[in-house]
Specification:
Blueprint (H helix, E strand, L loop, with lengths): L1 H33 L7 H20 L3 E2 L2 E2 L1 H23 L2
Antiparallel strand pairs: 1-2
Length: 96
């Protein structure tokens, strides 16, 4: 049982870090769209490749464009925070 607890703890910590990093990727990608960055820049390409599939998934189910503003990044950030506060914390508590 000790091994399973340690595994849950390690998986929870790693998942928390990955979600935190992805949240910042979403924030930076949203900011890049506001400053009209060069779409051929390799960094901009990577940011959009990491975020657009999730935005497309959200757009299939929810209308996120209101008055020219896309709320999909906000929905993603809220979902990430939910996962970090609920799922990750639950994994870490079950590990003890």
């Amino acid at each position: 049982m000790e091994v399973l607890g340690q595994f849950l703890y390690a998986a929870g910590v790693i998942l928390d870090q990955l979600l935190y990093i992805y949240m910042w990727v979403v924030i930076v990608a949203a900011l890049v769209t506001w400053v009209n960055a060069d779409p051929f820049n390799p960094i901009v390409k990577v940011l959009f490749r990491l975020t657009e599939p999730l935005y497309a998934f959200i757009h299939r189910f929810i209308r996120t464009y209101f008055q020219g503003f896309d709320f999909a990044p906000l929905i993603v950030i809220l979902a990430i925070q939910f996962l970090r506060l609920f799922v990750v914390e639950l994994m870490i508590k079950w590990s003890h």
